[in-house]
């Protein structure tokens, strides 16, 4: 495994084979995928931290879904990669959908965890309020936000029986740079749906039965707009799918890649 900085973007590359690009969500990093890496055996796995998240620089341009898509394009260009499989989580699924709709010929497949077309309009003010809190409150606010996310975005079984997962989710949020997290929230609050009907690749959509961010009904509606989509619902799982149910996520990923080989 190698880590490199490409124009301020932290990128990890591991394995050999067909390129696979991983895009994390709000409050995540390349480590969103660490728990499911064995499912990517036979792929050249490219994991990067979005601008302003994890180890990647924030830069001078305000964060947006468009900037995230451009960053994915730039990472692939820097690595000399054309066609890829794409895996994404949460806000990253919005980025992945825009990328795939823009470049359908470059995407071999999409595996989307906690998938979103865009935030519901009713939820946008709350996301903006979170951005404002992170910006004004700094480190202390990120702890408050992390605790709220653990409470609202993980399954009850996770909170009751997986303390290491609870700690991991908290750490992911609390280690984010405050301004980067604030701008990431603003990017999500303004996100619009991609023209997903343009996506021609097979798509796996995985959500949890207790995922309040990507609820089952919304993911079903997303799936129905795709020409080649398949939805899976994980029992006793919230929004942090790869942390809460890594074994089940790996099973679904392996079955998915076997089915399109």
Summarize the structure.
By secondary structure, the protein is α/β, with parallel strands linked by helices. It is 44% helix and 18% strand. The chain has a single domain, classed as Rossmann fold, CATH 3.40.50.
What does this entry look like structurally?
- The chain has one domain: Rossmann fold (3-Layer(aba) Sandwich).
- It is α/β, with parallel strands linked by helices and 261 residues long.
- The longest helix has 30 residues.
- The mean pLDDT is 97.
- Strand 7, helix 7 and strand 8 form a beta-alpha-beta unit.
Order of strands, widest sheet: 1-2-4-3-5-6-7-8
What is the CA-atom radius of gyration, in angstroms? 17 Å
Q: Summarize model confidence as the mean pLDDT.
A: 97
CATH architecture annotation name: 3-Layer(aba) Sandwich
Q: Report the total helices.
A: 9
Spell the H/E element sequence.
EEEEHEHEHHHHEHEHH
SS-derived structural category: alpha/beta
* Fraction of helical residues: 40-55%
Number of domains: 1
N-to-C terminal Cα separation, in Å?
A: 25 Å
Shape: globular
Largest sheet: 8 strands, mixed
The named CATH superfamily: Alpha/Beta hydrolase fold, catalytic domain
CATH-assigned fold name: Rossmann fold
Low-confidence stretches: none
Assess the beta-strand content as a share of residues.
Answer: 15-25%
């Amino acid at each position: 495994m190698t880590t490199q900085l490409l124009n301020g973007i932290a990128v990890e590359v591991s394995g050999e084979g067909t390129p696979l690009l991983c895009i994390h969500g709000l409050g995540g990093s390349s480590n969103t995928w660490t728990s499911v890496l064995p499912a990517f055996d036979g792929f050249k796995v490219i994991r990067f931290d979005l601008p302003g998240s994890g180890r990647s620089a924030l830069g001078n341009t305000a964060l947006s879904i468009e900037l995230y898509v451009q960053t994915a394009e730039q990472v692939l260009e820097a690595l000399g990669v054309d066609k890829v499989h794409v895996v994404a989580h949460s806000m990253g699924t919005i980025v992945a959908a825009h990328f795939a709709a823009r470049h359908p010929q470059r995407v071999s497949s999409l595996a989307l965890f906690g998938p979103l077309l865009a935030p519901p309009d009713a939820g946008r003010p709350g996301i903006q309020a979170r951005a404002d809190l992170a910006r004004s409150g700094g480190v202390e606010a990120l702890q408050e936000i992390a605790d709220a996310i653990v409470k609202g975005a993980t399954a009850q079984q996770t909170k009751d029986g997986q303390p290491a997962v609870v700690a991991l989710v908290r750490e992911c949020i609390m280690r984010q740079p405050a301004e980067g997290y604030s701008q990431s929230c603003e990017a999500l609050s303004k996100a619009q749906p991609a023209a997903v009907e343009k996506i021609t690749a097979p798509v796996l959509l995985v959500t949890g039965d207790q995922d309040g961010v990507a609820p089952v009904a919304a993911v079903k509606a997303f799936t129905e707009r795709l020409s080649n989509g398949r939805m899976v619902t994980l029992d006793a799982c919230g929004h942090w799918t790869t942390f809460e149910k890594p074994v089940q996520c790996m099973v679904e990923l392996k079955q998915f890649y076997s089915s399109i080989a």
